[in-house]
């Protein structure tokens, strides 16, 4: 069974940048990332800017990101 990697907030932001997301805003330690599709749909994800994210937080971000990014494309970045 694949093991979830221990990622930091900036690591996750870099991963999502590979899929066309960019920093939209930041409030406190939370970074909002957004991309706009060709049809004009706004896709937004929020990532805590922490040195190390809890495993539950990483899983939640992964699950939310799979709404916009195919799971097979995203899995190599989050799991070993």
Notes on the structure:
The protein has helices spanning 9-17, 55-65, 71-78; strands at 22-27, 30-36, 42-48. It has 80 residues and is an alpha+beta fold. It has a 3-stranded antiparallel beta sheet with strand order 1-2-3. It is built from 3 helices and 3 strands. Helices cover 35% and strands 25% of the residues. It has one domain: Metal Transport, Frataxin, Chain A (2-Layer Sandwich).
Structural class: alpha+beta
What is the β-strand count? 3
Biggest sheet strand line-up: 1-2-3
Query: Mean pLDDT, rounded to whole units?
Result: 95
Indicate the CATH architecture: 2-Layer Sandwich
**Largest sheet: number of strands, sense, barrel closure:** 3 strands, antiparallel
Q: What's the CATH C level?
A: Alpha Beta
Count of runs of 4 or more consecutive helical residues = 3
Please tell me what the overall shape is: globular
What string, H for helix and E for strand, traces the elements in order? HEEEHH
Helicity level, as a percent range? 25-40%
Key traits:
single chain; 80 residues; alpha+beta; 3-stranded antiparallel sheet; 25% strand
What's the arrangement of secondary structure elements?
Elements (H helix, E strand, L loop, with lengths): L8 H9 L4 E6 L2 E7 L5 E7 L6 H11 L5 H8 L2
Antiparallel strand pairs: 1-2, 2-3
Entry summary:
By secondary structure, this protein is α+β, with helices and mostly antiparallel strands. The chain is built from three helices and three strands, in the order H-E-E-E-H-H. The relative contact order is 0.26.
